[in-house]
């Protein structure tokens, strides 16, 4: 049973790590575009921002639908998602330690 569960849990940890990177990247890119540091008229920059935003919004939209976390124009749903992902990652790590 360890042969199947351990690799699956490691895959879940890796996917959580990728999701965290995407969320943080989306937040940083949105700040940089809002401040005018990134030029959205550049086709490459626009496509990168668009791809990261679509992936991020796919994860954030369920949270935004359930909770209203916008205060004075600031969206706090990425913070909630990062806390949730960290919580799940700690659970997966604890389960993995049982198999070690």
Describe this structure in words.
- The chain is mainly alpha-helical.
- The chain has 3 helices and 2 strands, in the order H-H-E-E-H.
- It has helices at 2-34, 43-66, 77-99; strands at residues 70-71, 74-75.
- Strands 1-2 form a two-stranded antiparallel sheet.
- The model has no long low-confidence stretch (mean pLDDT 93).
Q: What's the order of the H and E elements?
A: HHEEH
Number of helices: 3
Report the average pLDDT across residues. Answer: 93
Terminal-residue CA separation: 13 Å
Uncertain runs are none
Summarize the amount of helix as a percent range.
over 70%
Helix vs. strand class: mainly alpha
Q: How is the largest sheet built, in terms of strand order? A: 1-2
Percent strand: under 5%
Radius of gyration: 17 Å
**Major beta-sheet overview:** 2 strands, antiparallel
Find the count of extended strands (DSSP E, 2+ residues).
2
**Which term fits the overall shape?**
elongated
